[in-house]
């Protein structure tokens, strides 16, 4: 079942969609619109803003208009907590400008008021013909539900730990809230669901359980993933498993970083899993070893800087030596490998040119532009005479001087065994 969010379909066989969230003060319409546009250009196909007060709600129509004036048609999503029922009813222009409302059923109120205020948001969505995301969060669950499940676990001696109970409550909250949304007048094709946790194993367990309970489109994301490598690794570890299993229709990386990185990470994850076509540079590089005759990291950074801004959707390899480089990276569209002070340019594993090492990055850029303009086969067909033979000769020479085991692995293994003993 698909849900239409603005011009973007979520679920129903559509490609998995990337979204990111702004960090600006939503009341600052100019800055928020600018960041929405920046996120869309970075790969975010939907953008989300917090609508947390009257000033933010009043700014939403201007944000939408500024995006449209700039040619940005990415759906605009409003994130509501605590007072969404008040803001959406008091500011109908905001309700009409947004393409989707995100509701957290755990913080729209307590007791009877919770259901009433949740229903109010759903009814506004019905009136304006908008979809909603029911966004359950492990840190803000309905405490009445949690306490009831804890008590049931004790009374019936079920033996569940607190982690299992919280995960169960998240799924139950999502399912019950979906039922309430339907009772409030929303159609099934207007509802997306998410159940976010902050630990990868919990996220995987929750979504596997949720996918068995509903056929609604699912939004994936590890909440509060954190900074730098930890945030990227934890989010990727969880979402990659679920996406590989066919679970998930839209994703967000919740990173403590520039939100542009969220958009780029999301797009990169989907490309790595083959769920979206590559639309930009894909740079691969060897980890370097004893054979490398150049600073692979420095060369890779130089190539990335030179090619990233050119919008060249090719897979480019930077390899440290000609012994293994062209062969190991033969599936890359093109690449370079170093040996004896020279750069060996290869296209789909075929060496097409040999240049001085100082010129190899420039030659790589030139070759990339030729591949884009003329095609891979044409570049291979016009390889420089003698390039392949020179590369082969260099490879033989390196093997003769360095040996098959340039990393001295046998010596290292022996040393490790000595330490272990």
Tertiary shape: elongated
Strand order of the largest sheet: 8-7-6-5-4-3-10-9
How many helices? The count is: 16
Alpha carbon gyration radius = 27 Å
- Percentage of residues in DSSP E strands: 15-25%
Structural class assignment:
alpha/beta
Mean pLDDT across all residues, rounded?
A: 90
- N- to C-terminal distance: 60 Å
Number of strands: 15
Instruction: List the quaternary state of the chains.
Output: single chain
Main sheet overview:
8 strands, parallel
- Assign a percent range to the helix content: 40-55%
Instruction: List low-pLDDT spans.
Output: none
Provide a descriptive summary of the structure in words.
- By secondary structure, the chain is of the alpha/beta class.
- It contains 16 helices and 15 strands.
- It has an 8-stranded parallel sheet. Strands 11-12-13-14-15 form a 5-stranded mixed sheet, sandwiched between helices.
- β13 (334-339) and β14 (342-347) form a beta hairpin.
- The chain is elongated, with a radius of gyration of 27 Å.
Secondary-structure blueprint of this entry?
Elements: E1 2-5, E2 8-11, E3 17-21, H1 29-42, E4 46-50, H2 54-69, E5 76-80, H3 84-90, H4 92-97, E6 100-103, H5 111-128, E7 132-137, H6 143-155, H7 162-183, E8 191-196, H8 200-213, E9 219-220, H9 228-244, E10 250-251, H10 259-272, E11 282-285, H11 296-308, E12 315-319, H12 325-328, E13 334-339, E14 342-347, E15 350-356, H13 360-374, H14 376-381, H15 387-402, H16 409-420
Parallel strand pairs: 3-4, 3-10, 4-5, 5-6, 6-7, 7-8, 9-10, 11-12, 12-13
Antiparallel strand pairs: 1-2, 13-14, 14-15
Helix pairs in contact: 1-2, 1-10, 3-5, 6-7, 7-8, 8-9
């Amino acid at each position: 079942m698909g849900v239409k969010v603005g011009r973007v379909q979520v679920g129903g066989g559509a490609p998995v969609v990337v979204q990111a969230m702004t960090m600006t003060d939503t009341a600052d319409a100019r800055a928020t619109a600018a960041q929405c546009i920046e996120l869309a250009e970075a790969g975010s196909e939907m953008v989300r803003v917090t609508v947390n007060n009257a000033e933010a709600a009043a700014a939403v129509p201007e944000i939408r208009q500024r995006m449209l004036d700039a040619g940005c048609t990415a759906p605009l999503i409003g994130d509501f907590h605590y007072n969404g029922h008040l803001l959406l009813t008091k500011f109908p222009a905001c309700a009409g400008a947004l393409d989707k409302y995100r509701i957290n059923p755990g913080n729209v109120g307590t007791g009877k008021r919770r259901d009433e205020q949740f229903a109010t948001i759903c009814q506004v969505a019905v009136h304006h013909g908008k979809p909603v995301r029911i966004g359950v969060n492990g840190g803000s669950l309905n405490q009445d539900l949690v306490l009831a499940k804890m008590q049931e676990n004790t009374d019936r001696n079920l033996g569940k730990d607190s982690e299992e109970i919280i995960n169960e409550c998240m799924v139950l909250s999502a399912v019950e809230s979906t039922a309430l949304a339907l009772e409030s007048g929303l159609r099934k094709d207007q509802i997306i669901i998410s159940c976010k946790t902050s630990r990868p194993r919990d996220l995987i367990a929750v979504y596997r359980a949720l996918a068995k309970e509903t056929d609604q489109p699912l939004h994936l994301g590890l909440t509060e993933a954190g900074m730098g490598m930890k945030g990227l690794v934890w989010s990727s570890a969880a979402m990659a498993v679920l996406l590989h299993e066919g679970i998930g229709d839209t994703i967000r990386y919740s990173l403590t970083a520039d939100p542009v990185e969220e958009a780029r990470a999301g797009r990169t994850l989907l490309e790595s899993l083959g769920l979206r076509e590559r639309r930009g540079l894909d740079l691969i590089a060897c980890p370097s070893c004893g054979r490398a005759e150049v600073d692979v990291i420095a060369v890779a950074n130089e190539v990335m800087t030179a090619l990233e801004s050119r919008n060249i959707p090719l897979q480019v390899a930077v390899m440290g030596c000609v012994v293994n480089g062209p062969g190991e990276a033969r599936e890359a569209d093109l690449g370079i490998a170093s040996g004896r002070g020279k750069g060996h340019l290869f296209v789909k594993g075929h060496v097409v040119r040999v240049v001085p090492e100082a010129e190899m990055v420039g030659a790589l850029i030139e070759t990339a532009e030729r591949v884009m303009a003329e095609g891979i086969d044409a570049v291979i067909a016009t390889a420089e005479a003698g390039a392949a033979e020179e590369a082969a000769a260099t490879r033989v020479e390196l093997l003769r001087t360095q040996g098959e085991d340039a990393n001295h692995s046998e010596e290292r293994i022996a040393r490790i065994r000595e330490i272990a003993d």
